[in-house]
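3.2 Worked example (two chains)
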Amino acid sequence: MRERGDAWSDNGRSRIGPSGQIAPIGPNPVFQFVRDLAIIVSVRSFLVGALALAMGCGLPSVHAGTLDGGPGPTTYVLAADGGPDDINPQGVAPSCTSVDATKAAASPMVTVPAGAFSMGCNAAVDNECREDEQPPHDVTLHEFQIDKNEVTQAQYFACVQAGACTFPKCRWDPCTKADYPIGCVNRDQAIAYCKWAQKRLPSEAEWEKAARGTDGRKYPWGNEPLDCQRVNMFGCSGEAWAVGSHPENASPYGAVDLAGNVVEWTNDIYLEGYYRLGVSVDPPGPPEGPHFSGRGGGFRSEGIWQRTGSRDKYQPEYTRNSMGIRCAK
């Protein structure tokens, strides 16, 4: 409530004079202008959002990177990983103390020959191109090898036993799910595992060539549509499956599960416009930035993220059970 004073005070609806008399006035013009402008901006934002939803806009509704500033989905299943309490920043000990050594053996690798390929979205076969996949451009890589399968829980357990790796950030069971991919590992944990295995994380370019080959295909297996028999994505199993369960999703070089199951860390820092810089030989990625690139989509990612050209960004501390590892060398 305004106090009476020696001068007129204004509450926007009346004036109170020194003797207490009240004189009604119209709204303060500055206040009214600000209020009307706020209403106009709010209505405009609502209409733009409604139009975007009506047109589809090519925006996915669920993908693995949403909580860390990933590109523009409309919703995220916050309890998708069993609820926020399922993630323990200190790590979670395994449910057993020993694993069959044969299941903990390193993954076989496939060889990707040296040569050029087209990196980025191939609009001739893909109508879901995103801005960070543009422009398509030729990239030449040296020969390299990449794991045929995603790193399994048993393989990661062997690294923990050796003292080179720390516990993942959520529940895991390397005994009964030895062949299932490890999840809930952040980027440093992924680097540590690959280093222990005498390998490294692949670059974005290496990952993409391993997934698509040289013919510009939309998915690792070709251009045939997605289905749950071929790729473990959002709306299918709701959980990871054992690595290599569906060999029909193999890439031209024989690597499997490069689409679906778990998202895979790469070595590169993420920059939306990196392709426009035109780095054409063994691109190392940007020199600095707050996010790192993840590839391949996961079992919680919609179909748009399963494409060979799809890119996503993650903070290095990101840990969900749909985030895993594949190494290269």
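3.2.1 Second chain
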Amino acid sequence: MKKITVSLLMAGSFLLGFQLHAQTTFLTNGLIAYYPFQGNANDATGNNHNAAVYYAILTNNQFGLPDTAYYFSGAYIEVTNTIGFPASTNDFTVSLWVNFAQLNPGSPGSQFQILFCGRSYDSFQLDINTSSGTNAPIDLFTGATEDNPNDLTTATVAWTLNNWYNLQIIRSQNNLAIYRNAQLIGQTVATHTNAAAGQNLDFGARLSGPGSDFPLAGALTDIRIYNRALSPQEVAQLYEFESGQTTGIVSLPCITFLGVTGALYTIQYSTNLSETNWSVLVSNVVLQPDSYLYTDTNAFGQPQRFYRVIPQ
């Protein structure tokens, strides 16, 4: 937990303090592999799930930083040490960023583009169905086979070429869900058991003998694999964190202050310390016995807020 302690001079003669707690534990809780692709395909968690790169080329990530993503065009990246990766009916989350350079409908071998897959056919696979070009659904297989239907096909959504998107794929017990940029685009009840335990995991193509098929025409970065299901709030937090939309506080600020037991206080906030007009967050706060904890549930997804507490 990240903790920032600040002191503020309040109205009157009271000098009070409060603490802002930024809950960032969701980033690492249950994280078994993380590939930020910062010059290589190593696992940044230290769990030794390092990947090998086959013909993929380093490129810019969603922030435009060089050598922090891999571009695929008939290339792939392979993880051979997949101990602890999603298997059976275990909960999991896979989060990644993808940038499609081409979504061509109907061309042989390219009506699907593989984002990731296990070695067994359709045992554990995420792809985009490009039959309709840039209006395309996402397919998820987690235990299905070539002769059985995929587990989840999302709604058809529009994609802009050369634009970055965050996809989060979640299994919570038998419930599957796919989010794009923190928005739910598909969910269902799982009907298959993931049989990919112990198999290699590939990004950017599915290996077929000496070659590969259904290659991704685009880039990937910031691939995270968790051994648990992220909550909807964590999905949004992770998206905001990796898209750079969050300023200052990653999650909900918790304001703790000390004062006189039984006295009334008002908590105010502003998004600009140079402003003279502060907004009332909550009033008639009574300290019992001598401290108060308040969580600003409206701060999530908003610009950075500054707080002050004044006696009434």
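3.3 Remarks
The longest helix spans residues 232-243.
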